[in-house]
Write a structure and sequence with these properties.
Strand order of the largest sheet: 1-4-5
Strand content: 15-25%
CATH superfamily of the domain at 130-189: Head domain of nucleotide exchange factor GrpE
Structural class: alpha+beta
CATH class of the domain at 130-189: Mainly Beta
Number of helices: 3
Helix content: 40-55%
Distance between the termini: 132 Å
Order of helices and strands: HHHEEEEEE
Length: about 190
Protein backbone atom coordinates (compact mmCIF):
# COMPACT_ATOMS: atom_id res chain seq x y z
CA UNK A 1 0.00 0.00 0.00
CA UNK A 2 1.18 3.42 -0.79
CA UNK A 3 1.11 6.17 1.70
CA UNK A 4 -0.97 9.23 1.08
CA UNK A 5 0.91 12.23 -0.22
CA UNK A 6 1.95 14.51 2.54
CA UNK A 7 0.32 17.93 2.46
CA UNK A 8 2.66 20.70 1.40
CA UNK A 9 3.36 23.30 4.08
CA UNK A 10 1.77 26.25 2.29
CA UNK A 11 -1.47 24.44 1.34
CA UNK A 12 -4.33 24.64 3.82
CA UNK A 13 -5.20 21.37 5.40
CA UNK A 14 -8.94 21.76 5.36
CA UNK A 15 -9.22 21.97 1.54
CA UNK A 16 -10.68 18.89 -0.08
CA UNK A 17 -8.35 16.52 -1.77
CA UNK A 18 -8.99 15.38 -5.30
CA UNK A 19 -10.30 12.09 -4.07
CA UNK A 20 -12.95 13.69 -1.89
CA UNK A 21 -16.24 14.49 -3.45
CA UNK A 22 -17.73 17.97 -3.17
CA UNK A 23 -21.36 17.74 -2.13
CA UNK A 24 -23.84 19.23 -4.60
CA UNK A 25 -25.40 22.53 -3.59
CA UNK A 26 -28.90 22.28 -2.37
CA UNK A 27 -31.31 23.56 -4.93
CA UNK A 28 -33.95 25.91 -3.69
CA UNK A 29 -37.14 25.74 -5.66
CA UNK A 30 -37.70 29.04 -7.47
CA UNK A 31 -41.24 30.27 -7.39
CA UNK A 32 -42.38 30.96 -10.88
CA UNK A 33 -43.50 34.55 -11.40
CA UNK A 34 -47.19 34.61 -11.74
CA UNK A 35 -47.95 35.22 -15.37
CA UNK A 36 -49.66 38.56 -16.03
CA UNK A 37 -53.12 38.56 -17.33
CA UNK A 38 -52.98 38.74 -21.15
CA UNK A 39 -55.61 41.47 -21.05
CA UNK A 40 -53.41 43.61 -18.76
CA UNK A 41 -50.45 43.11 -21.10
CA UNK A 42 -52.54 44.10 -24.12
CA UNK A 43 -53.92 47.18 -22.33
CA UNK A 44 -50.42 48.27 -21.28
CA UNK A 45 -49.17 47.83 -24.85
CA UNK A 46 -52.16 49.75 -26.19
CA UNK A 47 -51.55 52.60 -23.72
CA UNK A 48 -47.88 52.74 -24.73
CA UNK A 49 -48.72 52.85 -28.44
CA UNK A 50 -51.46 55.41 -27.84
CA UNK A 51 -49.02 57.66 -25.93
CA UNK A 52 -46.46 57.29 -28.73
CA UNK A 53 -49.11 58.15 -31.32
CA UNK A 54 -50.12 61.31 -29.40
CA UNK A 55 -46.48 62.40 -29.11
CA UNK A 56 -45.82 61.80 -32.80
CA UNK A 57 -49.01 63.65 -33.77
CA UNK A 58 -47.95 66.62 -31.61
CA UNK A 59 -44.45 66.61 -33.13
CA UNK A 60 -45.90 66.47 -36.63
CA UNK A 61 -48.28 69.34 -35.85
CA UNK A 62 -45.40 71.45 -34.49
CA UNK A 63 -43.33 70.61 -37.57
CA UNK A 64 -46.16 71.69 -39.88
CA UNK A 65 -46.63 74.98 -38.02
CA UNK A 66 -42.89 75.71 -38.03
CA UNK A 67 -42.61 74.88 -41.74
CA UNK A 68 -45.60 77.09 -42.58
CA UNK A 69 -44.14 79.98 -40.53
CA UNK A 70 -40.72 79.61 -42.20
CA UNK A 71 -42.31 79.46 -45.65
CA UNK A 72 -44.35 82.59 -44.90
CA UNK A 73 -41.22 84.45 -43.74
CA UNK A 74 -39.32 83.26 -46.80
CA UNK A 75 -42.09 84.59 -49.07
CA UNK A 76 -42.33 87.85 -47.13
CA UNK A 77 -38.61 88.59 -47.31
CA UNK A 78 -37.70 86.78 -50.54
CA UNK A 79 -37.71 90.01 -52.53
CA UNK A 80 -35.52 91.92 -50.07
CA UNK A 81 -32.42 91.70 -52.29
CA UNK A 82 -34.40 92.77 -55.35
CA UNK A 83 -35.83 95.72 -53.45
CA UNK A 84 -32.40 96.77 -52.17
CA UNK A 85 -31.16 96.79 -55.78
CA UNK A 86 -34.20 98.84 -56.81
CA UNK A 87 -33.65 101.64 -54.24
CA UNK A 88 -30.77 103.39 -56.07
CA UNK A 89 -32.88 103.35 -59.25
CA UNK A 90 -35.74 104.96 -57.34
CA UNK A 91 -33.31 107.58 -55.97
CA UNK A 92 -32.13 108.48 -59.48
CA UNK A 93 -35.70 108.53 -60.79
CA UNK A 94 -36.70 110.93 -57.99
CA UNK A 95 -33.82 113.26 -58.91
CA UNK A 96 -34.95 113.21 -62.56
CA UNK A 97 -38.53 113.91 -61.51
CA UNK A 98 -37.39 116.86 -59.40
CA UNK A 99 -35.40 118.25 -62.37
CA UNK A 100 -38.48 117.89 -64.61
CA UNK A 101 -40.60 119.65 -61.96
CA UNK A 102 -38.23 122.60 -61.88
CA UNK A 103 -38.50 123.02 -65.67
CA UNK A 104 -42.29 122.88 -65.82
CA UNK A 105 -44.92 120.97 -63.88
CA UNK A 106 -47.20 121.11 -66.93
CA UNK A 107 -44.77 119.43 -69.30
CA UNK A 108 -45.60 115.98 -70.66
CA UNK A 109 -42.28 114.62 -69.39
CA UNK A 110 -43.07 115.66 -65.82
CA UNK A 111 -46.64 114.26 -65.99
CA UNK A 112 -45.41 110.96 -67.47
CA UNK A 113 -42.66 110.63 -64.88
CA UNK A 114 -45.18 111.38 -62.11
CA UNK A 115 -47.37 108.49 -63.30
CA UNK A 116 -44.38 106.14 -63.35
CA UNK A 117 -43.41 107.28 -59.84
CA UNK A 118 -46.93 106.45 -58.58
CA UNK A 119 -46.65 102.97 -60.11
CA UNK A 120 -43.26 102.39 -58.52
CA UNK A 121 -44.51 103.65 -55.15
CA UNK A 122 -47.58 101.37 -55.36
CA UNK A 123 -45.40 98.38 -56.30
CA UNK A 124 -43.00 98.96 -53.42
CA UNK A 125 -45.92 99.43 -51.01
CA UNK A 126 -47.47 96.13 -52.18
CA UNK A 127 -44.18 94.43 -51.29
CA UNK A 128 -44.67 95.64 -47.71
CA UNK A 129 -42.01 98.35 -47.94
CA UNK A 130 -42.47 101.66 -46.19
CA UNK A 131 -40.27 104.73 -46.40
CA UNK A 132 -38.73 105.79 -43.11
CA UNK A 133 -39.90 109.16 -41.90
CA UNK A 134 -36.77 111.00 -40.89
CA UNK A 135 -37.10 114.75 -41.50
CA UNK A 136 -37.35 116.73 -38.23
CA UNK A 137 -37.28 113.50 -36.21
CA UNK A 138 -34.71 112.63 -33.55
CA UNK A 139 -31.69 110.76 -34.87
CA UNK A 140 -31.90 106.98 -34.31
CA UNK A 141 -28.71 105.06 -35.12
CA UNK A 142 -30.80 101.93 -35.74
CA UNK A 143 -32.64 103.64 -38.60
CA UNK A 144 -30.44 106.53 -39.71
CA UNK A 145 -26.91 107.00 -40.92
CA UNK A 146 -25.49 110.44 -40.04
CA UNK A 147 -23.51 111.87 -42.94
CA UNK A 148 -22.77 115.26 -41.36
CA UNK A 149 -23.66 117.60 -38.51
CA UNK A 150 -24.78 121.17 -38.85
CA UNK A 151 -24.63 123.73 -36.05
CA UNK A 152 -28.18 124.74 -35.11
CA UNK A 153 -28.87 126.21 -31.69
CA UNK A 154 -32.58 126.73 -32.45
CA UNK A 155 -33.30 122.94 -32.54
CA UNK A 156 -32.65 120.15 -30.09
CA UNK A 157 -29.33 118.42 -30.69
CA UNK A 158 -29.68 115.30 -32.84
CA UNK A 159 -32.66 116.53 -34.89
CA UNK A 160 -32.59 115.43 -38.52
CA UNK A 161 -32.31 118.52 -40.74
CA UNK A 162 -32.09 116.95 -44.21
CA UNK A 163 -32.39 113.51 -45.76
CA UNK A 164 -29.73 112.86 -48.39
CA UNK A 165 -30.90 109.30 -49.15
CA UNK A 166 -34.24 107.76 -48.20
CA UNK A 167 -34.41 104.78 -45.88
CA UNK A 168 -36.80 101.83 -46.18
CA UNK A 169 -38.23 99.07 -43.99
CA UNK A 170 -40.07 95.93 -45.02
CA UNK A 171 -42.49 95.11 -42.23
CA UNK A 172 -40.17 95.27 -39.20
CA UNK A 173 -36.92 94.57 -41.07
CA UNK A 174 -34.66 97.47 -42.05
CA UNK A 175 -33.72 97.26 -45.72
CA UNK A 176 -31.73 100.48 -45.97
CA UNK A 177 -30.88 103.13 -43.39
CA UNK A 178 -31.68 106.74 -44.24
CA UNK A 179 -28.64 108.96 -44.79
CA UNK A 180 -29.21 112.20 -42.92
CA UNK A 181 -27.69 115.48 -41.78
CA UNK A 182 -28.15 116.08 -38.05
CA UNK A 183 -28.24 119.22 -35.92
CA UNK A 184 -25.57 119.92 -33.31
CA UNK A 185 -25.19 122.70 -30.78
CA UNK A 186 -22.37 125.21 -30.79
CA UNK A 187 -19.52 123.76 -28.78
CA UNK A 188 -18.83 125.67 -25.58
CA UNK A 189 -15.34 127.13 -25.60
CA UNK A 190 -13.53 126.63 -22.34
CA UNK A 191 -10.76 129.12 -21.74
CA UNK A 192 -7.62 127.64 -20.26
CA UNK A 193 -6.91 128.68 -16.68
CA UNK A 194 -4.09 131.24 -16.37
Amino acid sequence: MSEPNPTPKNQPTDSPTPEEEIPAAETVPVEEASPLDPLEIALADAAQWKDMAYRNAAELDNFRKRTAREAQEARAYANADLLRALFPIIDNFDMGLEAARQESEKSMIFMGMSMVQRQITDFVREMGVIELEALNKPFDPNLHEAMAQEIRDDLPEGTILRVTRKGYKQKERLLRAASVIVSAHTPVMVEPAA
